[in-house]
Amino acid sequence: DYNSYLRSTFGERVQKIVFDSGLTCPNRDGTLSSGGCNYCNSTGSGTGDFGRGKTIKEQLEEGKEAMWKRYKARKFLAYFQSYTNTYAPLDHLKSMFDQALSSEGMAGMAVGTRPDCVDEEKLDLLASYTDDYLVWIEYGIQSVHDKTLALINRGHDFDSFRRAVQMTRSRGIHVCAHVILGLPGEDPRMMKETAEMLGRLGVDGVKIHLLYVIRGTRLAGMWQNGRYTCMEQEEYVQAVCDFLERLPADVVIQRLTGDPHPEELIAPQWSRRKNETLKMIRDRLKQRDTRQGKKAGPATQ
């Protein structure tokens, strides 16, 4: 798990500070599409801090103070979460990253982006920080199946992800893949194939999310019209265990389910019971006498 990984790396608790960089996404600004992925609303899973006028420096200091008060943390990771955080000119990105790492106690950063929004220059920029900081890049892939990616309006194919992973790992940057279980049209076999392919590509970490329906999305319309049915809790637990079995044992599991905002969530309501779901996953692994990596094949890289 991610907390254990960070403790073993730094010898103490490390807390993420979430940044809203104010960047947008080619799937929203008209470059690829204006509607975004069908499960994403206008906030892009962000805090909205940039829109409220908070600079990167202000978000940094507020985040550090909050993490100290809550956890007594002294080391921090800058996490650029919302939208596409490599979707800007190189000088803008450098200024953004420099500001986020400018304060005492910053141990590294994690940059959330799309696999079709990186190039050699941007990856070289990120690699330039690796001598002094831990650097992760988090690619939203969701599924390795092109049919599914088209259905959810991702705006890129699986080969874009494969190329991005190869370019990124060659520079010593850690790669985390974001995966959503329960996507429209996906059956258990397809979700297992996603896990197997990520293992073969040699990703360093994975975030596993449940597909939940939030207001203001095209998925909400599909759900209301009966064209999409949410996974049941038991079904999701089973899918997570199947997925973990097929990931190599050394892949860092950064997340096992998402955190929907209660005021935005339409369905399923059980997704708000995160601790219950996590306990069910742990219990099911024990019941099945299985573990992460039990059915994993070798990485091809």
How is the largest sheet built, in terms of strand order?
Answer: 1-2-3-4-5-6-8
Overall 3D geometry?
A: globular
Order of helix and strand elements from N to C terminus: HEHEHEHEHHEHEEHHEEH
Any low-confidence stretches, pLDDT <50, length ≥5?
none
Provide the gyration radius in Å.
Answer: 19 Å
- Total of helices: 10
Determine the N-to-C terminus distance: 22 Å
Number of strands: 9
Arithmetic mean of pLDDT? 94
Please identify the structural class as seen in this structure.
alpha/beta
What proportion of the residues form beta strands (DSSP E)?
15-25%
Which bin fits the share of residues in helices? 25-40%
Biggest sheet, open or closed, and with what strands and sense?
7 strands, parallel
Short structural summary:
The chain is 37% helix and 17% strand. The two termini are 22 Å apart.
What does this structure look like?
The protein has helices at 2-10, 56-71, 90-100, 120-127, 146-151, 158-169, 188-201, 218-224, 233-245, 274-287; strands spanning 14-19, 75-80, 106-113, 134-142, 174-181, 205-210, 213-214, 252-255, 265-267. With 301 residues, it is an alpha/beta fold. The strands form 2 sheets. A 7-stranded parallel beta sheet has the order 1-2-3-4-5-6-8, with helices on both faces. Strands 7-9 form a two-stranded antiparallel sheet. The longest helix has 16 residues, at 56-71. The radius of gyration is 19 Å and the shape is globular. 40% of the residues are buried.
